[in-house]
Specification:
The two termini are 40 Å apart. The protein folds into 2 domains: 24-169 and 294-326, ATPase, nucleotide binding domain (Nucleotidyltransferase, domain 5, 2-Layer Sandwich); 180-289, Nucleotidyltransferase, domain 5 (2-Layer Sandwich), CATH 3.30.420. 38% of the residues lie in helices and 20% in strands. It is globular. By secondary structure, it is α/β, with parallel strands linked by helices. Helix 1 (4-18) crosses helix 10 (295-308), helix 4 (109-129) packs across helix 5 and helix 6 (169-176) crosses helix 10 (295-308). The strands form 2 sheets. Strands 1, 2, 3, 4, 5 and 6 form a 6-stranded mixed beta sheet that branches. Strands 7, 8, 9, 10, 11 and 12 form a 6-stranded mixed beta sheet that branches.
Length: 339
Amino acid sequence: MISVSRLLLSGLCFLCAATCSAAQYPARPSAPGVAFRLTPDYGIAAIYFKDGTHVSVAQVQGSSEYQIFMRETTAASSMQDSKVCQLLSPVLGRMQSTLGVDLNTCLSTDVATVKALLASLNSAVESYLGTNICFASLSLDVADGKKSEVAQEALRAVGLVQVLPTIQSAQHIVLAHRPESEPEPDEEWIVLAVDFSTRWYNIGLYTVGELGIVDPVIDFVKGPTIDQDNQTDALRDTLSHLLANPPPNVKLPKQIRHLVVYGDDSHNDSLHGVLTELLGTDLVRNARVADSVFDGSKYTACVVFEDMDTVDFETRVKPAFGCKWRSRLYSGDPTTPEL
């Protein structure tokens, strides 16, 4: 059974996939949707505007400390455990959002490291818009676990509030490049998503079902394999293992309906040779190959916009204290110029 929250989010995704239409409430100023994505090496920022246009704002390389953190199998606690920090943290957070100052007091090393990258992305967005923002979304290759918790804390430390739950990056990339048609009711199509980037790769199975909902196949979507020697050969081994050990009652590659290839090296000839060898010419020839690392983030920014462009958003999601005072985006006056 489809949960109400998942159905609502899927409805927003459907709006973006189908039309990326103009706002439903044109009399009210509509702030743009902003999406941040964190990869093992760098961060990405994208904006979606009311008129349906997207902007790929920034791709910022993470520090060496950031890249080390993203490669760790465990992460430090998100906040120092002292009683002083437990008491001061809410106050410091309000001071930061109100005054626009950068305070790292009481943040763990990991949170401070991720915060530095998010702050750079946020500065790029605000420089483009000419004013500060209060809301954004966050996506990672693995949307749960310690890294997600650290990233969420870092986003709050920047002074921003999440519009959506943390998103698994590949899920929105698949949605952005999903099949043009949809399965019949009670039918599911198998989608293979392959991330091939300069320093990592990832393979996952997803289903596209009723209402165009994209779900990961349990136990067949994991985190990226990073800094692997002979990466193309390693991907061949991983994909061969997947094909030889499919989910129950699924025949691979026969039942793969759609192939999505993405990443900063998605057009790699050696990669496509391996995919053709293991999956067949037809599936690879008809694959959706992402031309930009921003594809998934631009789609997410559209979903963020659709969620914010509702009459009840401001009662559901509260900004950080004092954030709206400094911004030209969230005025209640319908005569406020829109960006």
